[in-house]
Amino acid sequence: MARFIIKRLINMIPLIIGITFLSFLVMSLVPGNFLSNLQMNPSISPEVIKQMEAQFGLDQPLLVRYGRWLWAVLHLNLGISLSYRVSVVSLIGSRALNTIILALSSMIFAWAIAIPIGIVVAVRQNSIWDRALSFLAFFGMSVPNFFFAFLLMYLALRTGWFPVGGTFSVDYANLDPLSKIADRINHLILPVIVLGTAGMASLMRLMRSQILEIKNSDFVRTARAKGLSERVVIYKHVLRNALNPFVTMAGYALADLLGGAALVEAVMNLQGLGLLLLDAVRSLDVYLVMGSVLTGAVLLLAGNLLADIALVAVDPRVDFSSLES
After folding, report:
1. In angstroms, how far is the first alpha carbon of the chain from the final one?
2. Is 127 helix (H, G, I), strand (E, B) or coil?
3. For 87, phi and psi rounded to 5 degrees?
4. How far is it, in rounded angstroms, from Cα 23 to Cα 16?
5. pLDDT over 80 (residue 178)
6. What is the pTM of this model?
């Protein structure tokens, strides 16, 4: 396992360099930069603008700026945010936990509902339950996230059952520790439902197709021939093999949720990485954008690595040598 992990970590280096360089290139192709708006302010002299360009390295060629940024990253320095005038590391650190909690909670919510429903519709194939839940799954796949978010926010506004957006209440700082946890959970309920529902339908359909494919396999027929009950066959033999693709896609699912969280955060005004990245792109805060892109790339690659390790742990047919090939 150690050899596999080291090899994967080494392979991540060119991937991260390629992702960050392309992002840096795209940001450089955008007309203007962070100081463009300041140039339109008559109270700021051109000399001050030039001084700020030199201070932030915006007057250097693309390769020079990227090389300096990459060298700083090797020293765990992501630079200074042009908008906030604080270190990018501190900004991302203050927002990353909110996004990770939202993504993980949404994944747990989606899987906890989609997998049992997928089992039910597969076991009761072509029944009224299968048709009704499959219809709901397709309906859930067709509703855009932002529209569903607006619907739930309207419901919260009309009923007062949940907070309408935001990460925490106005008086959050004055609450005791248990009340702070309850306040955070209360503000997470609607975003988790919105983000979790987006992937729930596809997960349910995948579980249904996996069980339908596996329950007619030779080893399942052998288990039935031994006199095992249908419940034992489904939950002990079929379900165990049907879950393997879910372990593989866990890393990708988390990465997709981190990406999808950006839209939910923007609509529901959540203080996470997605909203921070959106503000950085709008203001052309290149170092904050690059720090966010780097964080997302590392989380994606780390999630895939953990998913591969988990797959080897749960499936005796898979070993690390087969994953390397």
Report:
1. 14
2. coil
3. -65, 145
4. 11
5. yes
6. 0.70
